[in-house]
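Minutes, methods subgroup
Present: GH (chair), OT, SY

1. OT presented the first of two proteins processed in the latest run. Sequence and structure tokens recorded below as shown on screen.
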Amino acid sequence: MGFDEKIGNTTENTTGKIKEGVGRATDNERLEAEGRSDQAKSNLKQAVEKVKDAFKS
């Protein structure tokens, strides 16, 4: 996994956590769901990159 992808995935995951927290604090279900979705996408991207790295070595 390239360094740029790691930073991007970490940023997306962190942003998702923030969105989820703000959504929960403000009773905004849409924002909370969007945050969870961002985190799930980030986790999936990280998993794909790990599989790619495993096949490279």
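2. SY then presented the second protein from the same run.
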Amino acid sequence: MQASNTPTFSHRLLLVTAYLGFISLGLPDTLIGVAWPSVRDFFGRQQSDIAWIFFGAGASYFVSGLLTGKLLKSFGIGRLLAGSSLLVVASALGYSAAPAWALFAACALLHGLGSGAIDSGLNHYVANHFSPRHMNWLHACYGIGATLGPLIMTSVLVSLGSWRAGYATVGSLLLLLAGLFLYTRKLWGTPGETTDAALEAEASVGMFDTLKHTGTWAHIALFFIYTGLEVTVGQWSFTVMTEARGMSKETAGMWVTIYWASLAAGRVVFGFIIERLGIDLLLRLSMLAAVTGTALFGVNLPFSAGALALTGLGLASIYPCLMTRTPQRLGKGRAAHAIGFQVSAAMVGAALFPSACGWLAQTRGLETVTFATLAMASGLLLIHEVLLRFERRLS
């Protein structure tokens, strides 16, 4: 059901709440990249131990996404969003107060459970009640939150020298959003008002038939690598610049913030020009920019930090463009299952690649992380080019 041409106050309030909800998704996701050196030293951990954070959040996010459909029917989206946002608040405040490493790492489970439900619930609601333009900009809001996260943590680290205060600050901001979800919970609809159209689409093509399509596996691989690349660059570049290249925390934090800002700004701008360029051309140009950006960052020259801006700009359009192309490439019947596979693959990639880079940093040195990101960007471009050629042969 699409919104009417003359939106009501409730309609506008829910749209604003949805935008703020996606900002809240990005806000805590990127804190660990700036906080990790301080957290690691405080608890006496190794570089590779960051894997506990990525895998904990990724696994619980995956489970939360699988259960969201049932939870929507049982509780309705308003209550689900309110409850899930409180879980994210609990995780941020838990990070800030955890006295031991095990408790700090356990907070990642709360983070993933809450964020997964917010992500799935908001995407479902906006897809059925708002225009595709708003869906595009919704994902740009994630980039805004991801930009603010490192900025807040860097500012607090520089001014107060406390990563705990950084998490507490973000937790307080998220508590305000949880209050907004609680306030609007009755406006979102009632339990059971969910997935008739989605169920009809899923029934048209089975799960296993979807997996038989070559394009499905290509898209799964693209989302797996893309998300791993986006998160790895965002979470490890601060540590590389400060500990391997001797950059100050203020400057490194600024460049990480610019990376996430480029990703957010790119999604907004590309939303206006995508119809002129075409999705496939934009994807090719974006992937080439990502390869160039990761290569320039890896050479460690005076201008290398600036390559993070190019990398973020290159990555900006890839996720939403691939999502848009899924029903076009695979058919609407397969899309319902395929999108679920893609999101699951993205969560696994977001956990696996940054964790593997932690092992590389510990055993081979921090600079190896930059070579890993270049390999990911190159693999992304290669798989997409193979997919395009496969499509041309079939047409």
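Chair's summary of item 2: The radius of gyration is 20 Å.
Next meeting: continue with the remaining queue.
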